[in-house]
TrEMBL record:
Pfam family, one: TPR_16
SUPFAM superfamilies, per database record: TPR-like
Organism from which the protein derives: Kitasatospora aureofaciens (Streptomyces aureofaciens)
Name of this protein: Uncharacterized protein
InterPro entries cross-referenced by the UniProt entry: TPR-like_helical_dom_sf (IPR011990), TPR_rpt (IPR019734)
Length: 372
């Protein structure tokens, strides 16, 4: 009798194990099965059966939680469907929680999530000490062609400002990550390119700047063309630099950003085009550009200083003195013009005046070795 009881216990246990195995086999999910289940839930939701659809989506999301990596995206869709089926309840917090959970699983959250949810998720990220940049980037992607006036536009502007500050002021490794993500997520916008170029230059990776700007400039504003021209000028590739500055002048400033020159773009483009033309030996065109730059920004001493240097090169020392003096008039602390004026005095054998100007220049720029 006792043996019979033990045997019955074993049989029941084995039956239980078999039932579990069979159940697991029946609930094993594959892409086709998940797609079918998602479709059935969607049909229920479309038919106005939101509670039933919500339960089906929730069950599917739970089943997929420990599923294979290839079903990760479909779990995101299940959560997205569950959120949509939750909307009729009026529980926005529950809906947002489902969107938050689904976000990293979605292939294109900027298009898959409703705009109100993107606004909330982006605001959450900007107020958190760390985390993924995805919600902020998704909002900026969604509003790239224009945000609705009011809350949407204001939130998008705050998110963009927050991301730009991160790209500009964070630690180098954070800036590296943020600029790379912004560049990949926001094609066709100037500021991620300018931010990335600034980061590369600041971290001794200037060699990466050239292909970046070469690829981006043709599709950008004058800001990108100027930055591309400046890169070429630094490499002493003066003919293409002149062409780039031409295009910068033609296109003009783009959208304002911490890396843009804004109204100063025209002055800077004329100035650097003049310097490039000077190195090419086209002194007449160089003089015209530098004079135009001085006219654009009378309070900027750099064009006057550049004119003074060109005048020295041409042997026109009186004109050089005029230009250096004009530069010092608008900014008395501009040491390069002080050194230029000292050189004019030295060439004219006015040694006491030259020495005085050299001393004054060294007081403003003590590391300028030629004046010592």
């Amino acid at each position: 009798m006792a043996q019979l009881a033990v045997l019955l216990i074993i049989v029941v246990a084995l039956a239980g194990v078999a039932a579990v195995v069979l159940a697991r086999r029946r609930t094993t999910l594959d892409a086709a099965g998940v797609a079918k289940a998602l479709g059935a839930a969607a049909e229920q939701l479309a038919a106005g059966k939101a509670p039933q659809a919500r339960r089906r989506y929730a069950r599917l999301a739970r089943q997929l939680a420990g599923g294979p990596e290839e079903l990760r995206t479909q779990r995101g869709l299940a959560l997205l469907g569950q959120a949509e089926a939750t909307i009729p309840t009026g529980d926005q917090q529950a809906t947002l929680a489902l969107h938050r959970e689904a976000f990293p699983l979605l292939t294109d959250p900027a298009r898959q999530l409703p705009r109100w949810s993107l606004l909330r998720l982006a605001e959450e990220r900007t107020q958190a000490p760390d985390g993924d940049l995805g919600p902020v980037l998704a909002l900026l992607q969604a509003t790239a062609t224009g945000a609705e006036p009011g809350e949407e536009a204001e939130t998008a502007a705050r998110a963009r400002q927050w991301l730009q500050q991160l790209c500009r002021d964070a630690r180098p490794e954070q800036r590296d990550h943020a600029t790379a993500r912004a560049l990949a997520a926001l094609p066709g916008q100037d500021w991620p390119v300018l931010a990335r170029a600034a980061l590369l230059s600041a971290t001794d990776r200037a060699a990466e700047t050239e292909p970046l700007l070469a690829a981006a400039a043709p599709h950008g504003s004058g800001e990108l063309w100027f930055r591309w021209g400046a890169q070429l000028f630094t490499l002493h590739r003066d003919e293409p630099a002149v062409a780039a500055f031409d295009e910068a002048l033609r296109r003009g400033p783009g959208e304002p950003s911490p890396w843009g020159r804004g109204p100063a773009l025209r002055t800077d483009s004329l100035l650097f085009r003049g310097l490039a033309r000077q190195r090419l030996g086209d002194t007449d065109a160089a003089w015209a550009d530098l004079a135009a730059a001085a006219g654009e920004s009378p309070s900027d001493p750099r064009p006057r200083y550049a004119l003074g240097r060109l005048a020295l090169l041409l042997g026109a020392d009186d004109q050089a003195r005029e230009q250096f003096t004009a530069a010092l008039t608008v900014r008395p602390s501009f040491a390069p013009a002080r050194f230029g004026l000292a050189l004019v005095h030295e060439r004219a054998q006015r040694h006491s005046e030259a020495a005085a100007d050299y001393r004054a220049g060294l007081g403003q720029a003590p590391d300028w070795r030629p004046a010592r």
